[in-house]
Design goal:
With 419 residues, this protein is mainly alpha-helical. The protein has one domain (7-192, 201-410): Growth Hormone, Chain: A (Up-down Bundle). Helices cover 79% and strands 0% of the residues. It is built from 16 helices and no strands. The protein has helices spanning 9-39, 44-53, 57-70, 74-97, 103-131, 137-166, 168-187, 204-217, 219-249, 254-282, 284-298, 301-304, 312-341, 347-376, 378-388, 390-397. The radius of gyration is 20 Å and the shape is globular.
Length: 419
């Protein structure tokens, strides 16, 4: 066994595929609402619809494609989704060039790329346990999340400057090219992937039922799933309102907002490195719950930024640096629990169950937040989101997850956390 996954040639190729596309994705994530707000003069409600449509298609993918993903080879699908996303994104600068860009076009591209991204995420999560050994999953997820963290630094901050210099539609070209880069590296992976056995239910709804049963039968995974419902709702509030809060309520410029969001990548970077040491020191479950709790606490800095003009930027930076760090640690620990506890042949269907829950709750939160912000203001909506974030924390703290000490306890013959 190599001392590090950096010695695993195919993992390096998977990492290389992600590295550049992760930066490009942040550019588009930053650019889409900016196009809506500055170029198309969209209201908070329309920005919320745009935000919802980037995630809502994941529900359809989870319903109709998860079983197929489990029963097919993952790498060709990953490549196809990269190429599809590149083609879709290139239609935006083309439309802008001829003065044809509309809100409907923007929402359609957001929806279709969201669907392709959902399929990609499910396939990648199911692919990793087939590419590397189970006992290297935390290391693998940490390395991939570290890359995402670096992208969070470079992507939004670079996006703000790039968008201000060449406009948001042109900046999206960078993301399209990054997906083609990703497809090229995925194609170079040499490991031969055997297709999963074609047994089991084939009807899409039966596949979802199979994923639900797999999650329901594992107490620790089920606790994560229950928390995901309220986590998605409050996440939808932040997702829909943050950009409009920063640009309109706080009157910050695009470049400044991009740099602030980029600081979150620095937070996510230290959070990725901290995940495994926290789990060793505190026990796996306690580290996971503590990480989520500190993310909730850090989010109070966002609406508090409205109270003092001189502290607005420091508060937003503090939230990105602290909150995104603990969120990254939480996500690494949570996905590693799921990948370890569940059978490899139901990974995509179980992941789809999480995708359905998140894909319904996050856009629902976004769609509630937009009209609510038009009535009570963006700051008030964000305070509601902070209060609501205590719900998933309470669910996990009260679950058997709290006593989980090691990932090895989730394997056959181990324990699932105790009572």
């Amino acid at each position: 066994m190599t001392l590090s996954l950096w010695g695993h040639a195919d993992f390096r190729r998977l990492w290389a595929a992600q590295a550049v596309s992760a930066v490009g994705s942040r550019i588009t994530r930053t650019a889409l609402p900016i196009i809506a707000i500055t170029s198309l003069n969209a209201s908070a409600s329309w920005v919320a619809v745009l935000s919802a449509m980037t995630t809502a298609p994941g529900v359809l993918i989870a319903l109709f494609a998860a079983g197929m993903i489990d029963r097919t080879r993952k790498r060709p699908l990953l490549i196809a989704m990269d190429v599809a996303r590149a083609a879709l994104l290139l239609t935006l600068p083309a439309a802008a060039l001829f003065g044809l860009l509309t809100m409907a076009h923007l929402i359609l591209v957001a929806a279709l790329t969201g669907a392709a991204t959902a399929a990609f995420v499910l396939a990648k999560s199911a692919y990793l346990p087939r590419l590397i050994a189970v006992d290297r999953l935390v290391e693998g997820n940490t390395k991939l999340e570290t890359t995402e963290a670096v992208a969070e630094v470079a992507g939004p901050s670079g996006a703000g400057v790039l968008i201000q210099a060449v406009t948001a539609p042109v900046a999206i070209v960078v993301d399209a090219l990054s997906f083609l880069w990703s497809a090229w590296w995925l194609k170079r992976i040499e490991a031969q992937e055997a297709a999963a056995p074609p047994s089991g239910p084939r009807h899409p709804l039966a596949d979802i039922a199979e994923g639900w049963r797999a999650c329901r039968a594992q107490p620790v995974v089920f606790a994560l799933l229950a928390a995901e419902i309220t986590f998605g709702l409050v996440g939808g509030f932040f997702f829909a309102i943050y950009m409009i809060f920063a640009l309109r309520t706080l009157a910050l410029d695009v470049a400044t907002v991009g740099v602030i969001i980029g600081v979150g990548g620095i937070g996510a970077l230290w959070g990725a490195f901290a995940a495994e040491p926290l789990a060793r020191r505190l026990g796996y479950g306690r580290a996971l719950v503590l990480s989520l709790g500190l993310w909730v606490a850090a989010n109070m800095f966002i609406p508090a930024a409205e109270w003092s003009e001189s502290l607005a930027i420091p508060f937003l930076v503090a939230q990105q640096l602290i909150g995104d760090g603990f969120l990254a640690a939480y996500l690494i620990l949570a996905v590693s629990v799921r990948q370890t506890a569940l059978d490899p042949d139901v990974q995509a269907r179980a992941g789809a169950t999480f995708e359905v829950v998140g894909g319904l709750s996050l856009p629902l939160g976004a769609l509630i937040a937009g009209p609510l912000a038009d009535v009570v203001g963006t700051g008030a909506v964000l305070w509601i989101a902070v209060a609501g974030a205590a719900a998933p924390l309470a669910i996990l703290a009260a679950s058997r997850l709290w006593t989980l000490q090691r990932l090895a306890d989730l394997r056959p013959g181990g324990v699932t956390g105790g009572t």
